[in-house]
Amino acid sequence: MNPTLKIRTPEGIEFSFRLAGPVVRCLAWSIDFLITIVAIMMLNILAQVGGFISPDISQAVSLIALFVVWVGYGMFFEWIWRGQTLGKRLLSLRVMDAQGLRLQFYQVLLRNLLRFVDALPALYLVGGLASFFSRRAQRLGDLAANTVVVYNPKPAEPDLDQLLAGKFNSLRQHPHLEARLRQRVSPDEARLALQALIRRDELDPEPRVALFSDLAEHFKGIVHFPPEAIDAMPDEQYVRNVVDILFRTRAVDAKPSEKEMAVAVR
Amino acid sequence: MIIDLPRFIDAERPTWMALEKMLDRIEQEPDRRMELEEVQRFHLLYQKVSADLARVTTFASEPELRRYLESLTARAYGEIHETRDRAHRFRPLHWFLNEFPRAFRRRSGAFTLALVILFLGAIFGGFATMFDDDAKEAILPRQFSHLLGDPAKRVAEEESATSDRASGRHTYFAAFLMQNNIKVSILSLGLGVTFGIGTIIELFSNSVSLGLIVVDYVRAGQTMFLLGWLLPHGVIEIPSLLIAGQGGLVLGTALIGYGDRASLADRLRAIGPDLMALTCGFAIMLVWAGIIESFLSQYHEPFIHYWQKILFGVVEFAVLVWFLYFRKIADPEDAP
Known about the structure:
heterodimer, A: 2 domains, two-stranded antiparallel sheet, two-stranded antiparallel ribbon, 14 helices
């Protein structure tokens, strides 16, 4: 298991980042290396074209371009993409300040300049070993720049719109049964149904059908809705309607006051 | 109670979305300054989301929501608790003209140490060549193999040349020198991460070669040639190497932290901008040195008088000393 970087804010809140290990970082570097090689090859082709005008200047430009791409690639992308190169972006990695603060340009510059040391004697042996033995998986460049490389999952806000949206719910045609359902369903059962809906796309088709079949059967056993309300309704839709009943009303009741909303969303 | 979760989400979602929107804007427009009201609102949203995260932390069954709130809190935390100057724009000229001499002066102790190491190395190299004829061959790196022979013979060859041997490849040679010297300097600075030991070794070994060559030419009676050859580019190149060494020593000192009660992270944080400025400085200096070495230093008498080259070198050195030590520099800005 990869180590994590835990940060505790002065407000006493703790959050964590999963640190990237040497292997995944090596993979990201390999991607960047290939991209750099392709960029250099293209620049060389351009320089050869320029060679018809002045071979001396063309060779000089080619040499400088090679150096600039080699040294500047990481700096450029990590700066404009806030800690990510193409390779890191593909593997969902990100360079960040070791204290969780804003990444500064000097940090990007330093960690990239120190690649010259980390790459010694060959194939990033020094950097790889440093990263392997470091508590925060830092190569020497990271250590000097006070940075770490973390996994960068882009967590999306939980999408409960489908559960809470005002789609037609035939079960609501029977308010007394609706109220009974709310009364009889325990919080644990409600949580189970909610989680099943939130994570439904992570399930394979067959287990998904089986799960919602079991859940629907369970809820049907708690409150018997008339057949016309549930006829031809798929099990998953049934569970969705149940969750809508269990959570929707309370959610509406719990809306923050207008004053509170105005302060928060002003 | 999980039964409160959707209610919680529904109630708090506007706050999260508002904070996320603000963060997106801050990240997209890093140079924009927020109004006081905006800052207050940002702080309020941050506190609310932090509080929400604290509440959600108790729900073991809600990892996605927790990760989402952690991500928001982390992004906002980075913006709110950051006290360092913003340095969003890449302004090499500004760094070179102002931040570079400022950093150089602030870390002048490390430069003095680098200078002492240079002198020690040069003295060692000089003595080595004076007392051991084989020292030159043993010490000089392979790239200086053309200097292994008799200096007087080389000078005679250079002065009798009837054509420009570097004709048609001056620009390439200048480019080669620039990138090679910058690489060496970056390595010298980077080796500071070995608690400065690597930097000291690198500085010392380069100085040994320098001392050896100087004494070799002086003993052969070729002092004017040597000065005319080395001064035009050397008065910039050698200080550049020393500045790179200065950076390495600053880094090493910060890592050791002797006599400094600040944490390692704080020490590194304190030297970071200076290292950046020093790097920017020596890189620009080495670009100049590469041009001069390729386009001027390689020409000798009778094509150009040595005194002219020496005068040029002295003027360059005087300007460099004025620039690094005495030039009035702009006050530090928020955004260098």
